[in-house]
Amino acid sequence: MTKTIQQHFYAAIWIALFSVLLGLGLKVYLAMVIDKESLALYYTAIDIFSFSLLVLIGFRSSMVVSYNKIKDDRGIVNIFRYFILVAMLVAWAFVIPYVKHELGVNIDYWYLVATVFSMSLYLYLSNQLAMYRLYKVMNRSSFIEPLLSIFWFAMAFYVAEVKGIQSLFIMSTMASFSLSIYIFILKSKKSKEPVIKRVIIDSDMRQFIKKSLISTLEFSSGMMLIYMSVFFFSHYYSLDELGDFQVVTKPILIAMIALFVFPVFRFLLPELSKLFYQKDKEEIAKLKKWFYRFSFIVSLSFIVIFYLLGEYLIALIFPANYADAYLYLSHLSFFFVFIMLNAYQVAFIKASGAFTSALFIRLSGLGFFLVFFYVTRYFSESSIAVIFGLAMAYLGMFLLSWIIEKKIYGEM
Description:
By secondary structure, the protein is mostly helical. The protein has helices at residues 2-33, 36-52, 54-70, 73-102, 109-131, 135-159, 165-190, 203-236, 239-260, 262-277, 281-308, 310-317, 325-333, 336-351, 355-379, 384-410.
């Protein structure tokens, strides 16, 4: 069992790397054929839509844990459908008018309505893949996702000759629809779509809803840590230092998180949840030992690359005025191991059903960041204070989650 989940995990990393590189190549190409303003508005609109649908992403962990505990997929999926409907209606009523009139996206309403609907449909089906632990389908869908984006952009831009921002929204909408159809077909071979019916809200369903909302807050808090760093750079330091973080440090950190941290919640969390409710402490211990060993190997490689070779690599890839970003990455490289280990710990804590504890850990990270940033800034005006605050936030969350994880494991 442990070897199987390892294989899916490693496959997910290679697929994520493929997607990141292909996505980067697509962005570079789009920058050549689409004007800068349209491209900026499109990516901003997609970010806003993604944020407005954040509650749907937060449901994933609670769906996984609740299904392993109560085995009632009909009730879980039907409640999830209610929240999807509400999220879409809110997005259509408030977010779309903002994107069109305040942000200034000059495009027909139906493009925006279709984009929100297609994104919601994809999230609906991808959450079910995690709940049913359909790892192969998850990896296959991740692999074809960037390929579908390229295909539909080519169809819109070159075949249908739709230009400008319209071609980008057609690409996004049709890629999500196509991927949803693909997932639905493969998922249907493993598990039938639950029948739409009225749900009796008993204690189990109330706990599921509560966990889903807490999980949404927990996920948001985790993302907020990086955006707080951006705010502190922009508020206290120069545009050059902000540029070093935004253009070099943050993209590399997010790429590392996408490659080595996100798969923890996509693959290890469902497996840990199943093992937890089976009381299989031996398999959990094996999974933990493997992931800790893997984390140290990855983190040591990160240190070697960016501490010893980072200055050379950044000078090779980026213009000379971004050279100071080396200092940020060299400091962060020593703390990446805590990001990975904390991801495992939080996954185990959520797998046990302790969603409130997971939220507390994420919120503590924000507190650690503020305390260590201002303490460091009191003694030094260097922008390294932001990086140190971020690093100590990850270390603090690791120590706190280590205590909670140990307690939960001991009570199994």
